[in-house]
Design brief:
The chain is of the alpha/beta class and about 400 residues long. It contains 14 helices and twelve strands. The strands form two sheets. The protein has a seven-stranded mixed beta sheet with strand order 9-8-7-6-10-11-12, sandwiched between helices. Helix 1 crosses helix 14, helix 7 crosses helix 12 and helix 12 packs across helix 13. The structure holds glutamic acid (GLU). The site of glutamic acid has 13 residues, from strand 3, strand 5 and helix 12.
């Protein structure tokens, strides 16, 4: 995903021109003020391994913008994590929180590690040490970490506990915690559930009935998206993860596939489908990438048959691939809208922690659906009125709001 950051910044520049920032905000350097990260923290996290050796992990926290509220964003654990990745992902968080109208800025953290190679005790030491290294940078009103690729409730519990040990007992310091530690009901499912809410809205507009859907990535987001879409009556014709891909053109039995994944740790070997080398080879109406960045690129974009792509992951479609797809008439619902369900329920968790009063599942879910529907309708309206893609529309709305707030706050 090496050029994802450059792509986002050049799109932000183009949107700045479209919104006429130079005329609207003369001498304010508005695009630079919005685009450049506030603070980039790069450090090493050193831990003792179970076998007595020492290991060193390159680590990051990028605080991109706090114009609209405290920094907010997940912690990614993956061997491909690098500074350019984290800068891109932090920038997307700023745009996402602005677009869906929640009072946060944007940030992202990451550790370059293959978490599957660590034991439970090594993982705990790594997360605690990472938290300790950024302890002065985070806090419930400052910067609020959350889950991302390969981090979840377990890691958030350790982060919260480490912060409590060294600072104060503030549950709102991280979101995505286990429910027993103040996590919100519905947070774990929220990103995938939100992807499905947006997919159903877009399918209705595009008049896609009885859809055939392919889902790339079968982690927290992909699994939940598959479960909810399967319940809605869609045929999930192909699913892939980092170790394999299965296809069943009549539709996979998702309940059975989820059970298989729990035991085998991969979709590979599932007897209710045929193995497939490349998920893009399975014809479908809707494609939902839910893993890492740049899944759809210049070299494989010709294979995409879907009329609708919903970005469950962050930055799964490269800039060049997007241009080709838009020329063919494919509709792409961008990450900052499609996968915003996670950070929306993170906001609800933060509110509940501060109120000390906890909501029931129905309330969390109905507020999530309401917020995403509002954002989707707003993006669609702007896109139709201004004849721009759904991504450009989302960026215009997000940047316009950050720019007017930046001006109102003055020079910080
Ligand atoms: N990592 C998620 C995202 O990319 C969630 C962030 C959060 O809940 O703060 O949106």
């Amino acid at each position: 995903m090496a050029d994802a950051y450059d792509n986002i910044i050049s799109l932000m520049r183009r949107i700045g021109d479209r919104l006429d920032f130079n005329k609207k905000y003369p001498n304010e350097k508005m695009v630079e003020r919005i685009a450049i990260s506030d603070k980039i923290i790069r450090f090493k996290t050193i831990i003792g391994m179970d076998d007595g050796t020492i290991d060193v992990f390159q680590s990051y926290r990028v605080q991109h913008s706090e114009t609209l509220g405290p920094y907010k964003g997940g912690i990614r654990l993956h061997p491909t994590v690098d500074i350019s990745d984290i800068k891109a992902l932090a920038t997307l968080m700023t745009l996402k929180t602005s677009l869906v109208d929640i009072p946060f800025g944007g940030a992202k953290g990451g550790i370059c590690v293959d978490p599957h190679k660590l034991t439970r005790t090594e993982s705990e030491r790594l997360i605690r040490k990472y938290t300790h290294r950024i302890i002065n940078e985070i806090g419930p009103n400052v910067d609020i970490p959350a889950p991302d690729v390969n981090s979840g409730q377990r890691e958030m519990a350790w982060m919260y506990d480490e912060y409590r040990k060294h600072r104060e007992d503030a549950r709102a310091v991280v979101t995505g915690k286990p429910v027993a530690l103040g996590g919100s009901i519905g947070r774990k499912e929220a990103t995938g559930a939100g992807v499905v809410t947006i997919t159903l809205l877009a399918m209705k507009d595009l008049k896609i009935t009885s859809p055939k859907v392919s889902i790339e990535g079968f982690g927290n987001v992909g699994v939940q998206a598959a479960i909810d879409l399967y319940k809605s009556g869609a045929a999930i014709v192909a699913v892939s993860d980092s170790r394999g891909c299965v296809e069943n053109r009549g539709g996979l039995d998702i309940d059975a596939l989820v059970e298989h994944k729990k035991k085998a740790k991969t979709v590979s070997g599932f007897l209710g489908g045929k193995p497939l080398v490349d998920i893009l080879k399975c014809p479908c109406d809707v494609f939902i990438p839910c893993s890492l960045g740049h899944t759809v690129r210049k070299d494989n974009v010709e294979r995409v048959s879907a009329k609708l792509i919903v970005e469950g992951a962050n930055a799964p479609v490269s800039d060049e691939a997007e241009r080709t797809l838009l020329d063919k008439g494919t509709v792409i619902i961008p990450d900052i809208l499609a996968n915003a369900g996670g950070v929306i329920v993170s906001y609800y968790e933060w509110v509940q922690n501060r109120e000390g009063f906890y909501w029931k599942r129905d309330l969390v879910n109905s507020r999530l659906t309401e917020k995403l529907t509002e954002a989707y309708e707003k993006v669609k309206r702007y896109s139709v009125d201004n004849k721009v893609s759904m991504r450009e529309s989302s960026y215009c709305l997000a940047m316009d709001k950050i720019a007017s707030t930046t001006l109102a706050r003055g020079v910080q």
